[in-house]
Design goal:
By secondary structure, the protein is mainly α. The chain has one domain (about 1-205). Helices cover about 65% and strands about 5% of the residues. It has helices at about 1-10, 35-50, 65-70, 75-85, 90-105, 105-110, 130-150, 155-175, 185-210; strands at about 25, 25-30, 60, 125. The strands form 2 sheets. It has a two-stranded antiparallel ribbon. A two-stranded parallel ribbon has the order 3-4. Helix 2 (about 35-50) runs antiparallel to helix 7, helix 2 crosses helix 8 and helix 4 runs antiparallel to helix 5. This is DUF2085 domain-containing protein. Keywords: Membrane, Transmembrane, Transmembrane helix.
Length: about 210
């Protein structure tokens, strides 16, 4: 049953082609290698920011750092587009790395905007020191290695990935409820909205898939 639930939510965001997906404990993960990388990157940066920046007055990165983070999108574009138009054949290792590179930078733009202080002149860029960039990067690399070499049990790994998917969509949905004053109520609305959206996407995917 848990396996079916994980694959149901994975279907909301992924084609779930088996030979483009990684495995753990002999089971295929609920999302492909590229999407697995994206959410490993998202988790690593989100975890760091929530642990060390949640009480700080932060805003989005500086222009120079933002341009660097945008460059991290390029590997996935090249790998995905090159594979799609048959310029070269990709593999799961490349998909995982390029996906991680893409996902790693996203929370640096989203997370600061969740704070009411993000637009204040006194707020500091979310990336102020080298550790703000390299600590999540090392975590991403470590998690990517654990996933690629199948060193984590299936349910732990797949559950962690799908939970990250739900958290990410819930954070995106939280902007719809910025008017709600109580944090716990805003969080509840956001999670509910994220789950409903993913459920609808999964059902729609199920209808249109052969």
């Amino acid at each position: 049953m848990l396996h079916d639930i994980l694959h149901f939510f994975g279907r909301a965001i992924c084609h779930q082609i088996e030979d483009r997906s990684l495995q753990a404990s002999g089971e295929t993960l609920s999302i492909c290698a590229r999407d697995t990388g994206i959410y490993i990157g998202i988790f690593s940066t989100l975890a760091y920011l929530h642990l060390f920046k949640r009480k700080a007055k932060i805003t989005i990165p500086s222009i120079k750092i933002s341009l660097f983070l945008l460059l991290l999108v390029v590997p996935m574009i090249i790998d995905g587009l090159g594979s799609y138009i048959h310029l070269f054949e990709s593999n799961n290792a490349r998909r995982l790395v390029s996906g991680t590179s893409f996902g790693f930078g996203l929370p640096y733009f989203l997370y600061p905007l969740l704070s009411a202080n993000s637009l204040e002149a006194s707020s500091e860029p979310v990336i102020k020191h080298g550790r703000d960039l390299f600590a999540p990067l090392f975590l991403s690399c470590g998690l990517g290695g654990l996933v690629f070499w199948e060193w984590l049990p299936y349910y732990l790994l797949d559950g962690f990935i799908i939970l990250t998917v739900i958290v990410w969509f819930s954070l995106c949905a939280s902007f719809l409820f910025s008017w709600v004053d109580r944090t716990w109520l805003r969080s509840a609305f956001s999670i509910f909205c994220g789950l409903i959206f993913l459920t609808m996407l999964s059902l729609l995917h199920g209808l249109v898939s052969p």
